[in-house]
User: Fold these one by one.
Assistant:
Number 1:
Amino acid sequence: MKKVGSQVTIAIDGPAGSGKSTVARRVAEKLGLLYLDSGAMYRAVTLLAIQDGLTADSPELIERVKACRIEFADNGRTILLNTEDVSVDIRTPPVNRRVADIAKIPEIRHEIVKHQQRIGAEGRIIAEGRDLTTIVFPHADFKFYLDASVTERAKRRLADLEKQNVDITLAAVEAEISARDEKDKTRAHSPLRAAEDAIIVDTTDKTIDAVVDFILMHICEGEGGSR
Ligand code: DC
């Protein structure tokens, strides 16, 4: 398998519900790579803001973010905020509603991107989010952009929320996802966009296994790289 034997960086971007977390996790397991869920980091600082009663324009927020510790355990399945396991709390509707406003603050992005690049320096990583292919790892060996229709993405997110016993309608999830897409794509700093050299994958009618196989095929063939 080309490149995967020693050092390899795989970056995946795409909107909420495009399947990138599940796909990246599976590829990480299959290839023995470190998995980095970059959205979890923006969610963790959003939770920190909520817990501290701070909003996106609170002047103290940046200092609080600089001082906090965000760590992953169990190869990305668990996220710790100042040593507390917040893996469930970061995926609740209050965080969903506020995260895009916190994630657009340049100073916060700067801190989080530095942290992600430090994690990536370990060299065998698959990372997913909104700016991994463009800003965090612009020289990644393989870049993918996953997308799907809004309705399909809302259905997937609803299924996740139902597992957590969150009571919400499909229409409400669709509205939340559309609002977040708009904010993520139109923000001034590091907006969500497909890198020119990313392979675009529409996952609307594809199973997770089919997307994983497609990505593994590209990696095996060594065709997806920007280098
Ligand atoms: O992937 P997710 O839904 O967990 O991401 C949560 C939010 O974080 C999303 O609204 C956009 C933001 N985000 C970002 O701005 N940059 C990233 N690399 C990852 C996520």
Number 2:
Amino acid sequence: METSKLHAVILCSPGIGHFNPILELTNTLILHHGLKVTILTATTPPAFQLLHSPEDLNIVTLPPVDISGVIDPNATAMTQIAVQMRESKSNIRLALSKMDRTRTLFIADLFGSESFDLADEFKMPKYVYVPSTAWFLSLASYCQVLDKEVEGQFGDRTEPLRIPGCKPLKPEDTIEPMLDRHDQQYRELVRMGIEFGQSDGILLNTWEDLEHETLEALRKNEELTSLMKAPVYAVGPLTRVPVELTGARDSTLTWLDKQPRESVLYVSFGSGGTMSADQVTELAWGLELSGRRFLWKVRTPVDSGHADAAFFTGGSGEADTADVILGKFLPHGFLTRTSNVGMVITRWVPQVEILSHPSIGGFMSHCGWNSILEGITKSLPMIAWPLYAEQRMNAAFLTDEAGVAVRSKELLGLKTRDEIKNMVGSVMEENNPMRKRAKEIQESAMKAIEVGGSSHKALNQFIQDCMSKLQ
Ligand code: UDP
């Protein structure tokens, strides 16, 4: 590696949903801004997603850590990730101590901010990459204030929460950790929000046009700037572009090849989203009753435990066994009755390639931010079906702010087949206003990332600011 290049060390927390946006940031930094990058990660990346010419990319795999002795066995995925990152600190320190740190900056993802003291120790400027919305950053930073101001559970309040730069939101429309202040993930959130403010800068996977007001509030509203002095760079949407997969064409794509244009609803709940058996049954009925075409990535239901139950295993494809799900949980005769209009699949699928297919006309999503960006950049209207983490807030954003999605009135309980049928009908309708709005957002996203666009400029500014810190 040339020593003259600026070097970014990017710390990535576990989970494919965390790895993907880091990889997209890496690709952009290397290919369009001339940096070299080292990713520190415990996630095994899918090989096809790696850069074609990776001489400027180094991936250091962090050894797995045993957290069983320091965590509640029922802890949510968010708590598990936070604890894993904490317990990995000595391994991160070792990896940093061994590498050439000439002209090197440190970027932690949102779960990695606890390692900022290592960046200080090794004299690297420290940044955080929050691969999410400005809404989320505003809430995470402001949470330390709400934590002092509000007594009892947030959900017991009758009035919505006031978060600077965002629409007032009901607590159940914010993020999962806000629903129970006794749960460890809430304490982790408050800590993370405080640490974000101690960084030298914050990168967000959003863009000026999409969240202008909130970004302005993050920069100018004293309620936020008093907590967070660091500059905020909106550098998105950084999202994977479809690739020609090697080998035989995936069966989902060959099935889509045979469907009419914009006729298929893609249904998927991310790398780890799970629902109850009753909900899977209602969803199956809702899809069937809608009479629309669908491609459904289904996962084994869980009745006890969390909606994030498959977060650490979902990407492997081994957690889902087709016969168990298809035979036991789908309504009797469902597959036969829908065989002309539907495809049900239980394994890992090439989501970006599916969403880019001309036959896809809508997306039912759990509202992970990667999935949303992947859908929005294909101008797809959505059914927002949040399950955990910050997905409820993303769903509120998509429906109430961006105007590209519908969502159930039932925020936490069972969504019925009739409601699902109606949501599918409204999203798949040819001339619905959400489709028009999705197209406008897609165009503004493309403008933001082109050379001279707001996100391209923000990344250039970020690099200039890093260089002045390193002088
Ligand atoms: N994904 C995929 N195939 C699947 C399921 C998910 O490629 O079968 C990808 C999807 O394209 C997205 C990521 O996994 O990039 C999931 O990230 P997201 O932020 O949407 O949700 P999370 O899984 O982190 O909750």
